[in-house]
Amino acid sequence: MFGDIMGMMGKLKETQQKIEETKKRLDTVLIDEQSNDGLLKATLTANRKVKSITIDDSLLEDKEQLEDYLILVMNKAIEKATNVNEAELAAVAKDGMPNIPGMDMFK
Q1: Is residue 42 in a domain?
Q2: What's 74's domain CATH number?
């Protein structure tokens, strides 16, 4: 039984390391989003850090329109990045979970 516990602890530690490696890798995964007309573009990492925003000059003339564009595009980009982030981390966590009776909620 003690060996089983040590094996589970080792597996959990290995899984934690894989999760940390995945988080670092997600800093290099880029998510691009743009407005329907292409006047505003944003790039985020899968860890939801903004890398770039490109604004067409025509949007600079209307502050309210620019704000609306920013809200819409950034929300869509954040949602996509969150989906990628959660899927990647869940896959690593699920793969690395030891078989503990009663803890099958991750499978």
Answers
A1: yes
A2: 3.30.1310.10
pLDDT digit string, tens, across residues 76-88:
999 999 999 999 9
Q: Is pTM, for the whole model, over 0.90?
A: no
Cβ neighbours for 63, distance < 8 A, ≥ 6 positions apart: none
Q: Is residue 16 part of a domain?
A: yes
* 98 in Cβ contact with 11 (< 8 Å): yes
Q: Please state, in angstroms and rounded to a whole number, the distance separating the CA atoms of residues 88 and 44.
A: 16
Residue 107 lies in a domain: no
DSSP state at residue 52: E
Owning domain of residue 19: 2-101
**CA distance to 36, 61, 62, 88, 96, per residue, from 41 (Å):** 10, 17, 17, 24, 37
**Terminus-to-terminus CA distance in the chain, angstroms?**
23
